[in-house]
Specification:
single chain; alpha+beta; 6-stranded mixed sheet; two-stranded antiparallel sheet; 8 strands
Length: 103
């Protein structure tokens, strides 16, 4: 569930996550690919649902930043290749909330 604060301090809208998006996120968590990838999500205010906007494969953080809308907040799940100082490789999963200044 995602809570979204609306205009006044007393009004709070709770959004559910779309069922097909939940499944996609579960699969993304256990993906076998070794490239950087992202799932971009947004809130459908009419349906009060967090929905999939776009999926990206082999995308850098800089390229992902360029894909974000300038005036609307987004949720991002990002998986990337990380090489530890001892040579081990892992693929951390990051949850990012992006909100343009003033939004």
């Amino acid at each position: 569930m995602v809570q979204v604060q609306e205009m006044g301090p007393s009004s709070l809208v709770v959004c559910e996550v779309d069922e097909s998006l939940k499944e996609k996120l579960k699969k993304f968590r256990f993906r076998k690919e070794t490239n950087n990838a992202a799932i971009l999500m947004k809130i459908d205010m009419e349906k009060q649902l967090v929905i999939l906007e776009e999926e990206y494969e082999d995308i850098s953080l800089d390229d992902l930043r360029n894909e974000l809308p300038e005036r609307q907040p987004r949720f991002i799940v990002y998986s990337y290749k990380y090489i530890h100082t001892d040579g081990r490789v892992s693929y951390p999963l990051c949850f990012i909330f992006s909100s343009p200044v003033g939004e």
